[in-house]
Design a protein that fits this description.
The complex is a heterodimer of chains A (221) and B (679).
Chain A lengths: L17 H30 L4 E2 L5 E2 L1 H4 L2 H26 L3 H31 L8 H30 L7 H30 L19
Antiparallel strand pairs in A: 1-2
Helix pairs in contact in A: 1-5, 1-6, 3-4, 3-6, 4-5, 5-6
Chain B lengths: L32 H7 L3 H30 L9 H36 L7 H30 L6 H4 L38 H29 L12 H33 L12 H35 L6 H14 L15 H29 L8 H24 L1 H7 L3 H31 L1 E2 L2 H27 L16 H31 L1 E2 L26 E3 L5 H7 L5 E3 L7 E3 L5 H21 L4 H21 L5 E3 L18
Antiparallel strand pairs in B: 1-2, 3-4, 5-6
Helix pairs in contact in B: 2-3, 2-4, 2-15, 3-4, 3-6, 3-8, 3-13, 4-6, 4-17, 6-7, 6-17, 7-8, 7-9, 8-11, 8-13, 9-10, 10-11, 11-13, 11-14, 13-14, 13-15, 14-15, 17-18
The chains are: A mainly alpha (221), B mainly alpha (679).
């Protein structure tokens, strides 16, 4: 996707490159996109605070479902991938293509770990009886986190293409650095969205004695 | 940046040696004829194609409208069945909004924005072609539902197992253009195939995926236009010197990128409900259908301004030209346009006054809705101020623009009536609402767009539309329109409900329904005549000078038809209404010879946007096929996804390319021909 856009030779009116500007515009739009999805989840969480009913008809609490240690780990991994992404962008700006490749491989690896955790989490939740069909919670949870996972997957694909593209010798100079920087913008954005999802979907379930929504499982010391 | 041009500047792209993309494939740069149109990245050609498709779908939506009016012409009519009637009004609304007005606006964005800001193309030419082909794919998906409906009525599917198991057989969308849940959604428990029982047939699935694809097209185009307007202005073209049409394009594009995500998510959720058994709007599993209404109108109300702001921009260009004055209160017009766009996000719940929001939200949304009348009124007064004391020439575009002001104001008045929640409770779902939004969208938007067509057609094709036919068509449109929709105010207040396929005699509705139908046919003839006149002009019209109207903005300084590079030398702007000042004032347009010896850089053409669009078409047809239960339909979707990704990947890897055209020797400036005495 790095070469999707043609850039004109003429300096732009604002001094910002077209590609960078259009990526910021896309991210503005994507803010509204995730905002709508997260709102849907939170609205239904407020409306139905007691969790969900599994296939056997048992009432289930969200805290029993979530594996907060695992999700914290994958969140940490995604944060660190953003750190590596920043290093990759910096390396490109300095023209250090080998350092760029090393760091971008790290980002790809961490992104894949995150996706692996999500696949494991989805499978685990399915075994626990949470499906997209049996509750509103299942619908909003899977669609929201699944959409985010799709964003990460597209990002990983993009970075893999950039990695191999760098061997053609065309990913050089100011424009090459710009292409990487734009991929970085996307990656950081997806990371920030996950911080919000991790807070609003996962962490709040553990807030206060019975979770933020008030009717969760009482936490034991 | 580096580009792969290894040749000396050429006078025409046909002289190019075969050039290969980064992938080693020969670029379609030298193509002519249909291959040239399919692979073009020229904003002018893309604009013309947008316009042609939009006019085609306008006529299709018009035929659907006439079928509706024929059915309602007399009580207890059986011209169409109730089921067919539902499909007709749903497709009429969807077609007119998404396949008629929006692409016709996009046609103007494409053709005019680069010319008005003094640029050689949009910021992302191939992305622009992608927007066009994705729009075409979405339009074909939506309308292919009619083919399935036709096959169903003709009994083609009778021997198929998947057909026998269908419960509902409305193959075209039948929920109304807003597809309210739960009617559009599901109820009860999902079965083993992950599908819950539904209230409506696969038409809804066509609607969901069709709109989703159209959303991709609109979003891509809007990113492109914001980028173009902010970043590609000629030297001296400051934001407050932009022509008002370009300003309204900017506001509209910002509305699109912020409003469309809401419907995108709503459509994803509805699609998951229908095709994967999710419960977002499924009432029996705890889903809240009211959420659909909120999400839809958070998009739907800005959408109203997405439709009307471009027409307001057009009128703001036409009125000064034919009044011989600059636009009265330019900054106020621009600012009020932006305020309309901003407030447009804060009024969605006025579509939901009767859902029981509670007193405080209802009052708040009523007040905000009334507040929108202020910037709108400001615009109307500024337009009147532009006319005041002007030397008015009643050309066809001027007649249509004046019609816009008049009709749009009528629609605005009934809109203010709706904003009062208690009154709205009476008017909700009645023909009064139909009258209101047709005055705004047809009397307003369509007249504005037609005005734009007649105004800029001489620039687009270098040919002048036939004036007598244009006057007759404008008269028929305005007369027929008022005859068709004026009586609906009365019918609505007399209680005739919307979306009902017939009514009994004795309610006092017979006469005015009959009158409305006559008006609708006059309107139909008028629009057909106006469009036919334009199509004839494009091929056979009388040639005219590059500046037949004595225009005020940059595009009139160019030859007609506009050459592919737009500006041989980039203009340097010193004032608002730059070309008018250049002709009559002190501040001339400067030119910089930015091409020089190296020539003018032209972007390379590409097949890839078309390939990606074709992938969307396969996805769009495949998803409803899955919902129908057609075997192996999933493979159509998967291969469609593959084609789309392949198209985008090859597009990315082929490189931007580009070639150099010889800088043409500056010809003598276009002769100033203020002579429009034929009008």
């Amino acid at each position: 996707m790095s070469q999707v856009a043609e850039s004109s030779h003429a300096p732009t009116s604002t001094g910002i490159d077209h590609k960078k500007l259009i990526m910021w515009l896309f991210l503005a739009s994507d803010c509204m996109f995730f905002g709508t999805l997260i709102s849907t989840h939170l609205l239904y969480r407020k409306l139905y605070p007691t969790g969900f009913t599994d296939a056997e008809g048992h009432q289930r609490f969200i805290q029993n479902l979530f594996n907060i240690e695992l999700t914290s780990f994958s969140t940490f991994i995604l944060l660190m991938s953003s750190f590596l992404m920043a290093l990759a962008v910096s390396a490109m700006h300095k023209g250090q293509i080998k350092s760029f490749r090393r760091n971008i491989l790290g980002v790809i690896f961490f992104g894949l770990i995150f996706l692996g955790c999500q696949v494991y989490e989805f499978t685990h939740f399915l075994h626990q009886g949470l499906t997209i069909q049996n509750s509103v919670f299942g619908s909003t949870f899977y669609v929201l986190t699944g959409t985010h996972g799709t964003h990460v997957a597209i990002g990983v694909l993009w970075l893999i293409i950039l990695y191999f593209y760098s061997f053609t010798g065309k990913l050089v100079g100011h424009m090459g650095a710009l292409d990487v920087e734009i991929a970085g913008l996307y990656w950081h954005f997806v990371d920030i969205v996950w911080i919000i999802i991790f807070t609003a979907v996962y962490l709040v379930e553990y807030l206060g004695p019975t979770g933020f929504w008030g009717t969760g499982l009482p936490l034991t010391k | 940046m580096s580009h792969d041009t290894h040749h000396a500047p050429v006078a025409s792209k046909l002289e190019l040696a075969p050039e290969r993309s980064d992938l080693g494939l020969i670029r379609p740069d030298r193509s002519t004829g249909w291959a040239d149109w399919l692979t073009t990245v020229d904003h002018k050609k893309i604009g013309i194609m947008y316009g042609a498709f939009a006019m085609l779908f306008f006529l299709l939506g018009g035929v659907e409208a006439l079928a509706i009016r024929t059915q309602l012409s007399r009580p207890d009519n059986d011209f169409v069945t109730a089921r067919m009637y539902n499909q007709l009004f749903t497709m009429h609304g969807t077609t007119m909004i998404f396949l008629g007005v929006m692409p016709l606006s996009a046609a103007f964005f494409n053709f005019l924005v680069p010319l008005q800001i003094g640029a050689r193309d949009v910021a992302f030419p191939r992305l622009n072609a992608f927007s066009l082909w994705t729009f075409v794919a979405g339009a074909l998906v939506l309308n292919s539902s009619w083919l399935f409906e036709f096959g169903h009525l003709s009994g083609w599917f009778n021997n198929f197992d998947w057909y026998k198991s269908l419960v509902y057989t409305d193959f075209a969308p039948a929920n109304g253009w807003f597809s309210y849940a739960p009617l559009s959604g599901t109820f009860g428990q999902a079965n083993a195939a992950l599908q819950a029982p539904r209230f409506t047939g696969v038409g809804t699935d066509f609607w969901i995926i069709g709109l989703q694809i159209l959303g991709v097209a609109s979003l891509a185009a809007s990113f492109n236009f914001i980028c173009t307007i902010i970043n590609m202005r000629a030297k001296g073209m400051t934001m407050m010197r932009l022509p008002v049409f370009t300003w309204m394009t900017l506001v509209t594009s910002i509305l699109i990128i912020l409003a469309f995500p809401a419907i995108t998510v709503a459509l994803i959720e509805l699609m998951f409900d229908r095709q994967f058994g999710a419960n977002f709007f499924n009432p029996s599993a705890g889903g809240q259908p009211i959420l659909w209404q909120h999400l839809f109108w958070i998009f739907g109300h800005p959408e109203v301004y997405i439709l009307v702001l471009p027409a307001m921009g057009i009128v703001s260009e036409v009125l000064p030209t034919f009044s011989g004055k600059s636009l009265f209160g330019y900054p106020i017009i621009v600012f009020s346009g932006a305020v309309i766009g901003f407030l447009g996000f804060a009024v969605w719940s006025h579509h939901m006054f009767t859902t029981g929001l509670g007193a405080v939200p209802t009052a708040a949304f009523a007040l905000l809705t009334m507040a929108i009348a202020v910037p709108t009124g400001v615009k109307i007064f500024n337009w009147l101020g532009t006319l005041w004391g002007g030397r008015i020439r009643f050309t066809p575009p001027m007649v249509l623009s004046l019609g816009f002001i008049w009709m749009f104001m009528c629609g605005g008045f009934s809109g203010v009536m709706h904003s009062a929640a208690p009154a709205d409770a009476q008017q909700q779902d009645s023909y009064f609402v139909i009258a209101h939004f047709h005055y705004v969208l047809l009397g307003g938007v369509l007249l504005g767009l037609m005005s734009g067509l007649y105004f800029w057609f001489p620039k687009i094709f270098g040919r002048m539309p036939n004036a007598p036919i244009a006057y007759i068509a404008s008269g028929l449109v305005i007369l027929g329109f008022n005859l068709a929709f004026g009586p609906m105010h009365y019918l609505g207040l007399a209680g005739q409900p919307r979306r009902t396929h017939t009514y009994h005699a004795g309610n006092g509705w017979e006469t005015w329904n009959y009158v409305a139908t006559i008006g609708a046919f006059i309107l139909g003839i008028g629009i057909f005549l106006a469009f036919a006149n334009l199509v004839w002009t494009a091929f056979k019209g009388k040639k005219c000078s590059p500046d037949p109207w004595d225009g005020r903005t940059l595009e009139w300084s160019l030859p007609s038809p506009v050459p592919e590079y737009n500006f041989a030398r980039s203009p340097i702007i010193a004032t608002r209404d730059a070309y008018n000042e250049d002709k009559y004032g002190e501040k001339k347009i400067g030119y910089e010879n930015d091409g020089g010896e190296a020539g003018i850089h032209m972007p390379s053409q590409s097949w890839m946007p078309l390939v990606a669009g074709f992938g969307f078409l396969m996805i769009g047809i495949g998803m409803p096929l899955i919902a129908m239960g057609v075997p192996h339909a999933g493979w159509v979707v998967i291969s469609g996804l593959g084609v789309m990704f392949l198209g985008i990947l090859l597009w990315a890897l082929e490189g931007p390319g580009g070639y150099m055209l010889k800088t043409p020797t500056p010809s003598s400036p276009a002769p100033v021909t203020a002579n429009t005495s034929s009008y």
